[in-house]
Design brief:
This protein has about 130 residues and is mostly helical. Helices cover about 85% and strands about 0% of the residues. The chain starts with 11 loop residues before the first helix and ends with a helix.
Length: about 130
């Protein structure tokens, strides 16, 4: 800690030194916040993508015998090739709609560390005030 002159006021050099020290501390804290925020978002996304993939695989395994049954049942009425084609087209459409919905949701989710960005703005404002 620097000695303060007897008048109780710090010199310009001491004030500048304090400002530099406080700025370093703020920058370190902002970097730590960004790391924490990004790792939390990545962990959340990774966990949910894994769960979604497992759910999709289980659904696929269950749908295969159902689809075979639908194709066979329709095949008796309209022919097996036509029923297989229609069932395939139906599920491609459903899959495409679900895929587009998921991709749009992922695009709308920001991976930007928003708390850190806000903190950086506040620090910038604080630094401007300190240098006036």
């Amino acid at each position: 800690m620097t000695a303060v002159p007897q008048g109780g006021e710090k010199s310009l050099g001491q004030l500048f030194g304090d400002l530099v020290g406080e700025t370093r501390t703020l920058i370190r804290q902002e970097i730590a916040l960004a790391k924490t925020e990004l790792s939390e978002k990545a962990a959340f996304a990774g966990r949910n993508v894994g769960i979604a993939a497992a759910g999709a695989m289980i659904i696929l395994m269950g749908m295969l015998p159902i689809l075979a049954g639908i194709v066979i049942a329709l095949g008796h009425k309209i022919g097996y090739a036509t029923s297989a084609f229609l069932v395939g087209i139906l599920f491609v459409i459903i899959g495409a709609v679900l895929l587009m919905k998921a991709l749009n949701a992922l695009k709308s989710e920001s991976m930007k560390p928003e708390q850190t960005a806000e903190q950086v703005k506040e620090t910038k404002q604080w630094m401007k005030e300190q240098t006036r």
